[in-house]
Amino acid sequence: MNTSLDLHALYRAMLLTRLLDERLWQLNRQGKAHFAVPVAGHEGVAGYAFALDHARDYMLPHYRDLAALVAWGLTPREIFLSLFAKLNDLSSAGRQMFAHWSLPDRRVLSLSSPQPNHVTHAVGIALAGKIRRENIVVWTGFGEGSSSKGDIHESMNFAAIHKLPVIFCCENNRYAISVPQEKQMAVQNVADRAAGYGMPGVVVNGAHALEVYECAREAIERARRGDGPTFIEIKVYRFMPHTSNDDDRRYRSREEVDAARLNDPVVLLREKLIAEKLWDAARDTALQKDLHAEIDEGQAFAEASPSPTAADAFTNVYAT
Amino acid sequence: MAIKTFLESIRDTMHDEMARDERVFVLGEDVGVTGGVFRATEGLYEKFGADRAIDTPLAELSIIGIAIGAAAVGMRPIAEIQFADFIHPAFDQIVNEAAKMRYRSNAGWECPLVIRTPYGGGVHGGLYHSQSIEAFFCHSPGLYVVAPSTPRDAKGLLLSAIRNPDPVLFLEHKKLYRSIKGEVPDGEYTIPLGRADVKRAGSDITAIAYGAMLHETLNAAEQLAREGIEVEVVDLRTLFPLDRETILTSVRKTSKVCIIHEDTKTMGLGAEVAAIISEEAFGDLDAPIRRVTGPDLPGIPFNETGEHAFLPNAEKIATALRELARY
Asked: Does the ipTM exceed 0.90?
């Protein structure tokens, strides 16, 4: 275990994400937010954000990577500004739907909705880094649904040819909205495909954030050494519907969801920390109180922030 | 002032700009060692190395997607799509990513990308080496679409495109590459995007064209001049955003308009130009607006008779202009 990992910071990011996720869903159900993208079950991805260098690396995440973004410095205020599509939303000034992140000051490139259009961009950023002799690593995430598309093939092929420092992270939650994995591919592991591109492919259990961190750290070190890309498949389970517009009861049983919830990444990390005497119930209660206060403050700040005017829709089409 | 072909002008401009600005690099199929199938990138690999003249796999989607990523972090990529007919796998990247990057991020990110691609027919290219694709992309605000017709304009517009902070689709009519020669001023000069150019002054009819058809239109105008009809020929040069002012100024002078393009007729550029004139200068018109265009066919046939039947030329344009003059 890398001793530089701050376990408390990791747990804090994951717990904050879970509490935020619950609030975002509530606000949607109350009719106060047009759109929510639940991430419960995916919080283990926060581990990879701790393995990257926040000062120089790029992150082009999967849209369900809220935990990694929180670990990367995305704040509750910023999240609620996006949720309510406010003018001072950093990602898009309220132009894009929620969860289409863009953090220019933190090297998170603007994401669109068609998946996985951003993966080729990750390769392009890494190529720019190679041309300019910069020692950067580019992380990009996408779902196993996206792995069916040619973008992934073309991106992995090009990155492998040029030994580019890209980590391809497939978050396999077994459903492309409603379509189960067995209707998406004939293989058990998407990572099996990596061999066909001449890069390592590894599978990691996303319920365990520390395993995600370790796996990411190795891949990032390899990329930074100049040894090229790695394909990481994180096995996760989405506890909630795909988005606030989805009803997952149409395609999977409650029993299946309940069984998956027994492997809750936030709970598993909490129990591990408690078992290792690094955490306790009292500290957990206090932390939850702090995080709720932070969430309340972020929500109130965003609610009080100005919305875009009609005139704001007409700016920044071209530079001039 | 040197005399250069259309192709030489484009190639030399890339050489000069890559020497001046180390952020500029080219990528695409066969653009490196062999210098491009039309030789537009000849010599770049030898001069600037494999890092800045990148031979890519046969994969148009990622040629553009990778270029977008590099552009977003400060490079100035010039991506070549070998034939415009092959650009369609990258449509999503161009329209959904490059064209929307600035807008959707509220200028948090930008996409200073140039996509060069040879388009157009008349070289026995059949259905898949002859297409005109401009209409698809002129429906995508956030993107510039440029189509020069002369070696001089090619240089000035390509320099503007490379230095532009927004994405530019740079359409090079492949028939012009070696058939058109002209004077190209030495040294640096740019021609602003979004500005049309009056290539021939006239008082009787306005003919609006671009690309290879500009030259057919100039030939037709020559014929009509011998018959005493003075045709003003407007070269659009930038197809999106259109230069409404130059179009309308000419129309108000002549009161008669013919729009010429090689692309198929319905929903082609001519439809938009005609709509602008109808909205803004209807009272100035003395005749219905004419269009001379490719027919609404799925493609340009390989056989010579079919190809000839598809393409507008000076004769067809001259006939339309005479009819318009008599109206």
From this structure: yes
